[in-house]
Amino acid sequence: MNKRDVVIIGGSLAGAACARELERQGIDAIAFERDYFPRRKVCGGFLSPGAIECIKSLGLLDDVRRAGAVEVTSARVRIGNSRMNVPFERPGLGISRWALDEIFARTARVEQGHSVDEVTRSKDGFVVDGISCTAVVDASGKLGRFTRRRGVPEFGIQYVEPQSQGAVLEFSFFDDGYGGSVSVEGGRSNSCFLIKKDALQKYTTRPDCLVTGPLAYNRLPGEFIAIGDAAGMLDPACGDGMRHALETGRLAALVIAAGLRRRAPYDEMKSEYESEWHRRWWLKRAFGARMRKLLERPALFSAAVQIAPARLINRLWK
Ligand SMILES: Cc1cc2nc3c(=O)[nH]c(=O)nc-3n(C[C@H](O)[C@H](O)[C@H](O)COP(=O)(O)OP(=O)(O)OC[C@H]3O[C@@H](n4cnc5c(N)ncnc54)[C@H](O)[C@@H]3O)c2cc1C
């Protein structure tokens, strides 16, 4: 078939969630994904309570639990010499992206091994690698080339440890960055850190260490409806990036489905989606930006976190 209602560039969490919701809305959509699943990906592997709710509303929570996701009920946060225990009001889940993304790609219309090269505007919409469609969604992540963004001198690294650490998420802030470990399926744990560029070499000596970057938080104005990290990355310390990917994937699908039904122009759907995205996410994005600024003054940051860490973290996930 060389005509679709919607083509999605990228079939990881945001793209697959969007494809799945569009299919549920009766829209003919496909996500093209350059990689084959399962595949490793730099990510902490922690699903916040809000991400779990999204997975549930997409009808995939049983699959995620069956894949061996581990319940996480508290965090142990370390800043310099201080340590804090932060009980969660609602538990999260630990699962690797190896397992999670495979579930999403298997249960949505995702064509793997297809790297999108070219998107052009046409009279009726767009042409994506020779396929015409009415709407295009950019779900190609923080390094995708269809949306321009501002990079920062920070990288993400990830590796797997052979033992579980139970129901506790370990998280620490240190001079070169921050991050931590969480138990995942198979009795192992996933370790993931954000590291400043100048210090990166010190942390990449393990042969199994996966690196991504430079990271980019802010998207510049673009032509396409952008979801997940393509719309702008949340700070990893918020622990809500996957929720953002899933929620924006669903939101875009609902806006597009309604728009296609009333034959709305693409730019109208795009601006409707963008104002709703902004309304739902500006506060958390602003919080992440403020936190990054505060991290430049470690003493102040440490004092701020120690005042109300549990309340802060639990409020952040509401
Ligand atoms: C260090 C670090 C730790 C993190 N830890 C957590 C955490 O613990 N919890 C959490 O909730 N979030 C975390 N995040 C955030 C989370 O990983 C991201 O927000 C999430 O992966 C975004 O999903 P996405 O689908 O938007 O993008 P991605 O997962 O990046 O997917 C984009 C997909 O698009 C594909 N693609 C790109 N270009 C093309 C193309 N031209 N054609 C076809 N396909 C293409 C790619 O192959 C990729 O599969 C972390 C992020 C970092 C950097």
Set down the secondary structure blueprint.
Elements: E1 3-9, H1 13-24, E2 29-33, E3 46-47, H2 49-57, H3 61-66, E4 70-79, E5 82-94, H4 97-106, E6 110-112, E7 119-121, E8 126-128, E9 131-138, E10 149-151, E11 154-161, E12 168-174, E13 177-184, E14 188-196, H5 200-203, E15 210-212, E16 216-219, E17 225-226, H6 241-261, H7 266-295, H8 298-307, H9 309-316
Parallel strand pairs: 1-2, 1-9, 2-6, 4-12, 9-17
Antiparallel strand pairs: 3-5, 4-5, 7-8, 8-9, 10-16, 11-14, 11-15, 12-13, 13-14
Bound molecules: flavin-adenine dinucleotide.
Q: Under CATH, the topology is which?
A: FAD/NAD(P)-binding domain
Structural class: alpha/beta
Strand elements, count: 17
What topology, given as strand order, has the largest sheet? 3-5-4-12-13-14-11-15
User: What is the CATH top level name?
Assistant: Alpha Beta
Could you name the ranges where pLDDT drops below 50 across 5 or more consecutive residues?
none
Radius of gyration: 19 Å
Order of helices and strands: EHEEHHEEHEEEEEEEEEHEEEHHHH
Helix content, binned percent: 25-40%
